[in-house]
# Entry
Amino acid sequence: MVFAYDDITDEDARHTLSRVARAMSSVADPGDDAEVLDDRRRVVILFKATGDAPIIKRNKVRVLASAPFADVVAHLSKVLKIPAFAYLGCAFVPEYVISVGALCDAYGDGSKLVVFYATTPAWG
# Structure
């Protein structure tokens, strides 16, 4: 495929550059609308038992996307009534201060995040 750039005028270039600049500024400084939408966004967390951990009856919960991962671990420990270890992707423990929404965006599937749990350390 051949691209032709000869037909681009200065007006088109200015329009494209201004559109790119607006997009970059909205990424760097999201407006109040983006913060409001993030506050209402919820993430479905699916708990899966690992090792000798008991299977919990209610393995799906909805959490605010702005909640830290520490809240998920605290809820899991409360339900199990013993300290719990939570993992993402059968591989690692994320930092507890990272929001659930950011973890879902990076490691989840749309609005779902699978969290594996154990009563003893299972993975590094």
User: Anything to note?
Assistant: Strands lie at 42-49, 60-64, 85-88, 112-118. Residues 1-8, 23-34 have pLDDT under 50 and may be disordered. The helical segments are 10-28, 32-40, 69-80, 100-107.
